[in-house]
Amino acid sequence: MSTSMGTTPIRPDRPRCRVAPSALALLESARQGLAAAECDPSAGGRYVGAHLAALRAAAAIVAARAEPPSPRKKRPQSVWELLPRVEPTLSEWAAFFAAGAGKRAAAEAGLPRAVTAREADELLRDAATFVSLAESALGVPAQSLLPLPVAM
Question: Does 55 reside within a domain?
Fold first, then answer.
């Protein structure tokens, strides 16, 4: 995933706008989730943490850019369905993470063979790339992951 979509261009000509505090909080939560996932010893925990971090980053973009909902009732939509409408350059990423939702649910349920260590580590790398792309899409300076304190 990271090789084909890691270079997704975000339109640099897009004017930088003020980002709502709720969207910034979601981005911060995504970064914290990535840091926690990196330290998780279990493959399932790393996978779930990485997927949730990507979900929060996507939610930040949707929160910042989505139009107010229409008064007529519609079926609920996932953030992965909404993201391509508000940031088309991230459509492939949305499809990628949507496809991993079932695997995340299996890992959350504690199924021992839900994900391998390699899958978890690859998703963690992809999620980190995606969070950086989300920050760029919103015109927010990219944040580096801070190392977590080591317990003595």
Answer: yes
CA pair distance 137, 25, nearest whole angstrom: 16
N-terminal to C-terminal alpha carbon distance within the chain: 37
* Residue 2 located in a structural domain: no
89 within some domain? yes
**Structural domains in the chain (count):** 1
Q: How many CB atoms lie within 10 A of CB 151?
A: 4
- Could you read off the pLDDT of 18-44 as tens digits, one per residue? 778 889 999 999 999 999 999 999 999
Whether 9 has a pLDDT exceeding 90, the answer reads no
In a domain, 150, yes or no: no
The pTM of the full predicted model, rounded to 2 decimals, is 0.80
Contact (CB, 8 A) for 91 and 10: no
